[in-house]
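Why predict the complex rather than its parts? Because the way molecules touch one another can change local conformation, and only a joint prediction can capture that. The input here totals 602 residues.
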Amino acid sequence: MMLTVDKGSFSYPHGQPVLKDVSFSLAGGQIMAVLGPNGIGKTTLLKCVIGLLRWSRGESRLDGRSIAALDSRRLWQTVSYVPQARSTNVIYTGRQMIMLGRSARLGPLQTPGPGDMEVVDQVCARLGIQRLTAKACNRMSGGELQMVMIARALAAQSRLLVFDEPESGLDFRNQLLIMDTIRQLAADDGIACLFNTHYPEHALRIADQALLLGQDGSYVCDAAPQVVSDDNLTRFFGVRIHVGDVDCQGHHYPAVIPLALR
Amino acid sequence: MPDGHRVNKTLTAVVLAVAPLATALVCLGIGRIGYSPAQIVDGLWSMAVSGRGSVDPQLYSVLIGLRLPRIILAMLAGAGMALAGCSFQSLFSNVMATPDTLGVTAGASFGAVLAILLGGGMVTVQLSALAMGIGAVALTMAVGTRGRSGSTVSMILAGIIVSSMFQAFTSLVKYVADPDSKLPAITYWLMGSLTNASYQSLWLGAPFILAGILVLYMLRWKLNILVLSDDEIRSLGSRLPLLRGVVIAASTMITASCISMCGQVGWVGLLVPHFCRLLVGGDHRRLVPACISLGAVFLLVIDTVARAATAAEIPISILTALIGAPVFLFMMRKAEGLSR
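Output of the joint prediction:
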């Protein structure tokens, strides 16, 4: 699987450009992080990339074929979108919610069968969330719901996962769990992962590439350590930021420290 | 899955399948002339085997001529309205949505009272209500879905506006109607009643209800997805405008046809889906059959009370509200937390 974005631009009608000539490519097994200040267009970028919003100019391609021209069922069998897990009033159980991911592989009037049940079971085992299958989604914590959302995306057996702020609002344990899950999906299953985040150190921890978005559609995109630097972060976020290292028990951890407003 | 759970599921399915028929058998026997379920089964059996001449003519005319069309209508309307309510609750991701949300009730009511004002017969009233109900929803959709995807909020707003417009038309009709002859007929019609059930009206109205129920039943898995946000629905491979359009069209056909035959019957579309959710959970693969079955039972029981409890007929909307409101309050107390 190879995702290519070729000179994608996006602006709302009668508005300033949000994204301008964004180009990058992402191969199976690779992870890419999208960074940038609030409201700069990170989510817009993700939605444009996978066709939930339409590029004003430019295009996204999957294995060389334009996403806009792909049949929607084919597209959503290859790509899955993991929305940000907000508390929900949906009373489905975890199993029912995860099963919804199978829809992309079912006909319009088809209901899931035993084969689909099996896929759901495998996905739950893969993520270690069997205990959530009988729990109602409206009673889940943020971390639990996010894992269920990831499981739902995996149930579609797609090759590209797009996460909208997967670790936002979660505690340390759940942040690490989500990061580890993404890393494993890329490394073990060869799935391409694209996620946006407010934590540059998460990009340094797991991402191969990073894309940093700034005002008026400006951006830098490169290997994560090149993008996440003092200079870039300070320039794009408009506050002084230092990227450092913490050595602890023989391991090396990236640390990103906001220093001062100016 | 533990075995006990599966047995429980099968049991629920059997009960849901049998309940409407059993209720119908009992209700057929209730009325000024009472028959026991055994007499009814006996009578129906000999009619089926050796023709209508083999039974007491009185039994035939009471059961088949009088009560059966009304019972069929009650079951169809109950099942249809419950399912339409359930679908709209999924469509708007809101358990407070009812089949009326897009203005079908206000439109159909105006159609009916206008036909009554102009002196139309039963068939004219029915057709006018059906057409106006569908027309009102078409208007709501035209206003509320401008823009590419059409958010559900703007659809609900448009529904409120269109409803109040048609309610104003209805008031206008009542205002100009002759207070001695037409106004009582209009008022009585608006309160809802199944008195006018006949095979003729059923031939005209039932196909719409049955077709709508069939479509929504086939889409029951898709109703699960419809609860989610727009982006999620699309990313699960569903064609959103099409899916929404079909669900709205099916629900509207059902509701407009029900209202055109029995007037405003409130509560069924709100009460029954809620009760079914408590019973079988939120999965529409089980919720849809439950709504069909218990919707039929609910309205059949209510209508039997309406026609048999007192010497005079009680308008059905009064009963559904009088029974519906307390039951609903009780359920809300029991379900505390389920909806949160």
